[in-house]
Design goal:
By secondary structure, this protein is of the alpha+beta class. The chain has one domain: HesB-like domain (Hypothetical Protein Aq_1857, Chain: A), CATH 2.60.300. It contains two helices and ten strands, in the order E-E-H-E-E-E-E-H-E-E-E-E.
Protein backbone atom coordinates (compact mmCIF):
# COMPACT_ATOMS: atom_id res chain seq x y z
CA UNK A 1 0.00 0.00 0.00
CA UNK A 2 1.19 3.51 -0.76
CA UNK A 3 -0.31 5.96 1.72
CA UNK A 4 -0.80 9.69 1.55
CA UNK A 5 0.52 11.73 4.44
CA UNK A 6 -2.98 13.09 5.04
CA UNK A 7 -4.50 9.58 5.37
CA UNK A 8 -7.54 10.74 3.39
CA UNK A 9 -7.08 7.97 0.84
CA UNK A 10 -4.77 5.06 0.17
CA UNK A 11 -4.08 3.84 -3.36
CA UNK A 12 -2.81 0.40 -4.30
CA UNK A 13 0.07 0.01 -6.75
CA UNK A 14 -2.32 -1.66 -9.22
CA UNK A 15 -4.64 1.39 -9.11
CA UNK A 16 -1.68 3.76 -9.55
CA UNK A 17 -0.53 1.86 -12.62
CA UNK A 18 -4.03 2.03 -14.12
CA UNK A 19 -4.27 5.78 -13.43
CA UNK A 20 -0.91 6.30 -15.18
CA UNK A 21 -2.11 4.25 -18.13
CA UNK A 22 -5.37 6.22 -18.43
CA UNK A 23 -3.57 9.58 -18.21
CA UNK A 24 -1.21 8.49 -20.99
CA UNK A 25 -3.97 7.07 -23.22
CA UNK A 26 -6.05 10.24 -22.80
CA UNK A 27 -3.05 12.48 -23.53
CA UNK A 28 -3.38 14.08 -20.10
CA UNK A 29 0.02 13.52 -18.55
CA UNK A 30 0.48 16.11 -15.80
CA UNK A 31 -3.23 16.06 -14.91
CA UNK A 32 -4.54 14.65 -11.66
CA UNK A 33 -7.36 12.33 -10.72
CA UNK A 34 -10.27 13.88 -8.84
CA UNK A 35 -11.76 11.33 -6.45
CA UNK A 36 -14.99 12.31 -4.83
CA UNK A 37 -18.35 11.53 -3.32
CA UNK A 38 -21.68 13.10 -4.26
CA UNK A 39 -25.32 12.61 -3.38
CA UNK A 40 -27.03 9.97 -5.45
CA UNK A 41 -26.85 6.31 -6.30
CA UNK A 42 -28.81 3.39 -4.91
CA UNK A 43 -27.55 3.84 -1.35
CA UNK A 44 -27.52 7.64 -1.03
CA UNK A 45 -23.92 8.55 -1.91
CA UNK A 46 -21.89 7.63 -4.97
CA UNK A 47 -18.22 7.73 -5.86
CA UNK A 48 -16.89 9.55 -8.90
CA UNK A 49 -13.56 9.85 -10.69
CA UNK A 50 -12.52 12.56 -13.14
CA UNK A 51 -9.30 13.66 -14.82
CA UNK A 52 -8.63 17.33 -14.06
CA UNK A 53 -5.80 19.67 -14.87
CA UNK A 54 -5.42 21.24 -11.43
CA UNK A 55 -6.93 21.15 -7.95
CA UNK A 56 -9.57 23.51 -6.62
CA UNK A 57 -8.45 25.94 -3.88
CA UNK A 58 -9.67 23.84 -0.91
CA UNK A 59 -8.76 20.41 -2.26
CA UNK A 60 -6.55 17.94 -0.47
CA UNK A 61 -3.71 17.26 -2.90
CA UNK A 62 -2.37 13.75 -2.40
CA UNK A 63 0.82 12.70 -4.11
CA UNK A 64 1.62 9.06 -4.78
CA UNK A 65 4.96 8.99 -6.57
CA UNK A 66 4.16 10.74 -9.90
CA UNK A 67 0.35 10.57 -9.56
CA UNK A 68 -1.63 13.43 -8.01
CA UNK A 69 -5.09 12.85 -6.56
CA UNK A 70 -7.43 15.69 -5.62
CA UNK A 71 -10.13 15.27 -2.96
CA UNK A 72 -12.53 18.05 -1.99
CA UNK A 73 -13.28 18.75 1.69
CA UNK A 74 -16.83 17.30 1.54
CA UNK A 75 -15.62 14.04 -0.01
CA UNK A 76 -12.68 13.74 2.38
CA UNK A 77 -15.14 13.31 5.28
CA UNK A 78 -16.56 10.18 3.64
CA UNK A 79 -13.33 8.85 2.12
CA UNK A 80 -11.05 9.00 5.17
CA UNK A 81 -9.37 5.61 5.49
CA UNK A 82 -10.61 4.40 2.09
CA UNK A 83 -8.39 2.36 -0.22
CA UNK A 84 -8.72 2.83 -3.97
CA UNK A 85 -7.88 -0.38 -5.83
CA UNK A 86 -8.16 -1.63 -9.40
CA UNK A 87 -9.41 -5.07 -10.38
CA UNK A 88 -9.13 -6.74 -13.75
CA UNK A 89 -10.43 -10.11 -12.65
CA UNK A 90 -13.15 -12.37 -13.92
CA UNK A 91 -15.71 -10.93 -11.51
CA UNK A 92 -15.38 -7.43 -12.88
CA UNK A 93 -12.97 -4.82 -14.14
CA UNK A 94 -12.58 -1.33 -12.76
CA UNK A 95 -11.70 0.81 -9.80
CA UNK A 96 -12.94 -0.38 -6.44
CA UNK A 97 -13.39 1.56 -3.23
CA UNK A 98 -12.78 -0.23 0.07
CA UNK A 99 -14.38 2.25 2.45
CA UNK A 100 -14.47 1.57 6.20
CA UNK A 101 -17.03 4.39 6.60
CA UNK A 102 -19.65 2.70 4.41
CA UNK A 103 -22.43 1.24 6.54
CA UNK A 104 -23.98 -0.41 3.52
CA UNK A 105 -23.14 -0.59 -0.17
CA UNK A 106 -25.03 -1.13 -3.37
CA UNK A 107 -24.44 -4.32 -5.35
CA UNK A 108 -22.57 -2.36 -8.03
CA UNK A 109 -20.05 -1.13 -5.45
CA UNK A 110 -20.34 2.44 -6.68
CA UNK A 111 -22.75 3.78 -4.08
CA UNK A 112 -22.93 3.59 -0.30
CA UNK A 113 -24.43 5.11 2.81
CA UNK A 114 -22.41 6.38 5.75
Amino acid sequence: MIESKEKVLEVTPKALNKIRQILKEEGKEGYGLRVGVRSGGCSGLSYYLDLVEKPLPNDHVLEFEDVRIFVDVFSAMYLKGTTLDYSDGLMGTGFQFHNPNAQRSCGCGQSFSA
